[in-house]
Specification:
- This protein is mainly α.
- The chain is built from eight helices and no strands.
- Helix 3 crosses helix 4 and helix 3 packs across helix 6.
Length: 150
């Protein structure tokens, strides 16, 4: 895969799909969505994060074989899911995580590398540690449906 590829792929779904809305953390009356900066901030984070995953020598394999149209659709699904899961106005219409990742052979090591890329992205956008912790806690609820025991 070319190092300049910024292809949204299925692995990105690991981090941003179907975070339960009941797990929303709130400070006062603001949702996590609002505290993260809303739609545009979430979209910027997703774009940077996907770029990191797609160009990672170990994770790039999950980004091969998607048409340009599919790449755009996957990216939008990720944005919508994170938006909805954090209390925003979006509606996620994609598949559940178990179905989406079945057979991909995503390992614990892949999960950890993906999490490290997410932290690097959140750091790049100066997301405060407390908000990062909330996002990572939400994402952690997805792990058992995504990581396959080898």
């Amino acid at each position: 895969m070319a190092k300049t590829a910024k292809i949204p792929g299925v692995l990105a779904l690991i981090v941003l799909f179907w975070l339960p809305s009941t797990a929303l953390a709130q400070a006062g009356d603001e949702t996590l969505y609002q505290r993260l900066g809303g739609y545009d901030a979430i979209a910027a984070v997703v774009d940077d994060f996907i770029g990191r995953l797609a160009t990672d020598p170990d994770l790039g394999r999950f980004f091969i074989g998607h048409s340009e149209d599919s790449q755009k659709q996957i990216r939008q699904l990720i944005v919508d899911q994170l938006c909805e899961a954090t209390g925003g106005p979006c509606v996620y219409t994609g598949r559940d995580m178990k179905t989406s990742h079945k057979g991909m052979r995503i390992s614990e090591e892949d999960w950890q590398k993906t999490a490290a890329h997410l932290v690097a992205t959140l750091d790049k956008f100066s997301v405060p540690q407390a908000l990062q912790d909330e996002v990572l806690a939400l994402i952690g609820t997805l792990k058992e449906d995504i990581v396959e025991e080898m």
